[in-house]
Amino acid sequence: MKKQKVKKVLKCTVVFEPSEEGGYVASVPVLSGCLSQGETFEEAVRMIKDAISGYLAVLKEKRLLAVI
Question: Which residue ranges make up each domain of the chain?
Fold first, then answer.
């Protein structure tokens, strides 16, 4: 039987700010240094989701995050 991967939903605040160069900068205050940007708000949302995923993967890999 194939093992099913359980997806957990984590909630956190994301701050979106207009960039001086245009577009948006997104940051996650509880994840120090977790930043991203996008030309549009929608792109910034997609990019910060990817950044959060990568950030958590690194924490897990370094065993700094017990369970995700």
Answer: 18-61
